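Renewal narrative, Specific Aim 1. Our central claim is that a sequence can be written position by position from structural information alone. The example that follows is taken directly from our test logs and has not been curated for this report. It begins with the C-alpha cells describing the chain, in the order in which they were read.
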C-alpha cells in the first residue's frame, strides 16, 4: 500500500533498444535522375546526334576481311548537350547544329564506345567491363576527354595487368605516353625490385 500515491499505483518502465542497427530506409524513394539519364541514352526520338560504326569499322586487328564484313552497322543515338559537359571531344566532331547529325566513328570497338557512353550518361561500368577492357577504356576515355573514367580504368588496369620482364618496357612507355601516373609508379616499382632481370632482358 506504500506504493500508492493518492490511491494511484505508478509503475516506471525503462526501455532500451537491443538492435544497434538503424531503422531501414528502404521505403524512401531514390533520386530518379540517373535512371532518367540512362533511359535518354539511345533515345532516337530526342537525340540530335548519331555516332555511327560502318560495317568493318572499329579495331579489327587480327580479323580476316570476311570476319570484318560480318560486323553489323551500329548506331548510337545521343545528345550533344550531354556530351558537351561529360565528353567534350565528342561534340567537336559535329559538323552541323541543325537536325540530327551523323558522325562516323572508327578506331574503337562499338562495345568499348558503348561503355564510354554509358558512363557519360551517369552509369557505372561493370567490373567485368574493366577487367576485360581496362586498357581499351583508358584509350577511349583519353581520346574523348573523359578524365574520371580514364583514371578509374587505370586503377583496374593496374589491378589486372601482369607485369613481367617481357612487357615492363612496353608498359612503361605506354604509361609515360598516356600520362598514367599510377601505372607508371607500379611499373617503376617492378623495375626497382627486379632491376637485374630487366637489364638482362633489355641487353638481349
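The sequence written for that structure reads:
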Amino acid at each position: 500500500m506504500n506504493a500508492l500515491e493518492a490511491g494511484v499505483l505508478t509503475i516506471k518502465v525503462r526501455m532500451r533498444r537491443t538492435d544497434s542497427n538503424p531503422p531501414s530506409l528502404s521505403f524512401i524513394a531514390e533520386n530518379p535522375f540517373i535512371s532518367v539519364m540512362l533511359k535518354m541514352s539511345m533515345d532516337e526520338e530526342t537525340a540530335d546526334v548519331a555516332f555511327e560504326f560502318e560495317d568493318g569499322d572499329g579495331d579489327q586487328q587480327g580479323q580476316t576481311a570476311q570476319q570484318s564484313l560480318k560486323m553489323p552497322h551500329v548506331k548510337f543515338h545521343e545528345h550533344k548537350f550531354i556530351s558537351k559537359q561529360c565528353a567534350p571531344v565528342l561534340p567537336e566532331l559535329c559538323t552541323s547544329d541543325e537536325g540530327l547529325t551523323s558522325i562516323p566513328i572508327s578506331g574503337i570497338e562499338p562495345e568499348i564506345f558503348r561503355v564510354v557512353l554509358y558512363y557519360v550518361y551517369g552509369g557505372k561500368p561493370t567490373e567485368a567491363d574493366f577487367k576485360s577492357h581496362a586498357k581499351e577504356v583508358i584509350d577511349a576515355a583519353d581520346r574523348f576527354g573523359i578524365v574520371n573514367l580514364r583514371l578509374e580504368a587505370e586503377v583496374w588496369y593496374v589491378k589486372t595487368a601482369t607485369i613481367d620482364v617481357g612487357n615492363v618496357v612496353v608498359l612503361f612507355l605506354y604509361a609515360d605516353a598516356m600520362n598514367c601516373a599510377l601505372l607508371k609508379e607500379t611499373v617503376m616499382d617492378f623495375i626497382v625490385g627486379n632491376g637485374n632481370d630487366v637489364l638482362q632482358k633489355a641487353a638481349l
